[in-house]
């Protein structure tokens, strides 16, 4: 794809975005103020492309894709000629505001400025900027080169044409964009994840189930369907007469449960420490890195499986 992309901040998420854009054949200009991050990013992108290639998920030539990747210690240099800027700096409002002011001042006028922020609304980050109409959140799920969904969350003053361009661009580089129509705390993905996490915490705190057994419910249960269809299609197929039949059979049960799910769960230090003890019994802290690599191998295998299935049944 004939596009120049600036990846601003090359930590965990920035490196993975680098793989996405390099895979699509973009010229990728990486910037990070930290020398260690600048040094590590190209090797991570090389390894990511090689892994995708080995699973049949990248049809191009990794060498050619890497030749289009450059690393810069000066922000203005990285922004030169970029039509898309993906910001992946620290998740702090003051840091994002300062960085977006720099981006708006230095990026080309036609460039879209997209933040990877997990929870900071673009209306708070870019409110006062002259170029705020081209600013939006493009929130990925970690790691974006293996999980395609990206939430586009514009402010009410973001130009709708910028959101449309974002949707087209992200689809063209192989992602699966969705639009958050109105700004809301946590956007949509983390609201969905939060609903599940909050209920899991309530169930554990109330002594209804152990953390390990909650994993069974997801890993060997609900998660299997959710890897290829959403909650509404799921219930459409879970009653003989489809979703209307499902609503008639089970709607009252969900309504009754919702009343019991209204309490704010305890995310305090003690509650988290109990979860931490349960997790560390399963996985020692020193094994977290290896387990993350394992997760990525599982994700790449799943992506390959999903691609094969889509080719076979058009689904
Ligand atoms: N980790 C996740 O699961 C995840 C998922 C989705 C979105 N995000 C979002 O992505 C962003 C980056 O998160 P991360 O997990 O990669 O963090 P990280 O700590 O791994 O990386 C942040 C990088 O930003 C760099 N940085 C510091 N100051 C900077 C500046 N002024 N300009 C540019 N870069 C700067 C740091 O050197 C570091 O390399 C955050 O906004 C986060 O909320 C994270």
Describe the fold and architecture.
The chain contains 13 helices and 8 strands. It has 315 residues and is α/β, with parallel strands linked by helices. 55% of the residues lie in helices and 12% in strands. The chain folds into 3 domains: 4-179, NAD(P)-binding Rossmann-like Domain (Rossmann fold); 189-281, N-(1-d-carboxylethyl)-l-norvaline Dehydrogenase, domain 2 (Orthogonal Bundle); 283-315. The site of nicotinamide-adenine-dinucleotide has 22 residues, from α1 and β6.
Beta-strand content estimate: 5-15%
**What's the helical proportion of residues?**
40-55%
Q: How many structural domains does the protein architecture include? A: 3
**Architecture per CATH nomenclature, i.e. the level-2 architecture of the largest domain:** 3-Layer(aba) Sandwich
Count of beta strands: 8
CATH class of the largest domain: Alpha Beta
Within CATH, the superfamily of the largest domain carries the name NAD(P)-binding Rossmann-like Domain
The kinds of small molecule bound in this structure are:
nicotinamide-adenine-dinucleotide
Strand line-up of the largest beta sheet = 3-2-1-4-5-6-7-8
Q: Count every helix, treating DSSP H or I runs of 4 or more residues as helices.
A: 13
CATH topology (fold) name of the largest domain? Rossmann fold
Nutshell version of this structure?
The protein has three domains: 4-179, Rossmann fold, CATH 3.40.50; 189-281, N-(1-d-carboxylethyl)-l-norvaline Dehydrogenase, domain 2; 283-315.
């Amino acid at each position: 794809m004939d596009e120049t992309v600036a990846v601003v901040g090359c930590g965990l998420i920035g490196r993975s975005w680098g793989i996405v854009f390099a895979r699509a054949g973009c010229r990728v200009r990486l910037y990070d103020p930290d020398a260690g991050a600048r040094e590590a990013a190209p090797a991570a992108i090389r390894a990511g492309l090689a892994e995708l290639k080995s699973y049949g998920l990248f049809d191009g030539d990794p060498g050619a894709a890497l030749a289009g990747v450059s690393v810069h210690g000066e922000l203005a240099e990285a922004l030169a000629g970029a039509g898309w800027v993906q910001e992946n700096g620290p998740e702090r409002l003051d840091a994002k505001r300062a960085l977006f002011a720099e981006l708006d001042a230095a990026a080309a006028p036609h460039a879209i400025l997209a933040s990877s922020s997990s929870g900071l609304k673009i209306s708070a980050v870019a409110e006062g900027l002259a170029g705020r109409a081209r600013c939006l959140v493009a929130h990925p799920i970690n790691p974006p080169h293996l999980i395609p969904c990206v939430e586009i969350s514009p402010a009410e003053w973001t130009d709708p044409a910028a959101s449309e361009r974002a949707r087209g661009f992200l689809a063209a580089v192989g992602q699966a964009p969705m639009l958050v129509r109105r700004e809301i705390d946590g956007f949509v993905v983390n609201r969905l994840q939060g609903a599940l996490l909050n209920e899991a915490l309530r169930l554990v705190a109330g002594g209804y189930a152990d953390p390990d057994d909650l994993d069974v419910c997801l890993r060997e249960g609900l998660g299997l369907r959710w890897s290829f269809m959403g909650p509404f299609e799921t219930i459409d197929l879970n009653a003989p007469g489809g979703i209307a039949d499902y609503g008639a059979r089970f709607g009252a049960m969900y309504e009754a449960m919702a009343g019991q799910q209204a309490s704010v769960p305890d995310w305090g230090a003690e509650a988290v420490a109990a979860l931490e003890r349960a997790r560390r019994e399963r996985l020692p802290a020193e094994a977290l890195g290896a387990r993350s690599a394992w997760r990525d191998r599982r994700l790449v295998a799943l992506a390959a499986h999903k691609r094969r299935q889509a080719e076979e049944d058009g689904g």
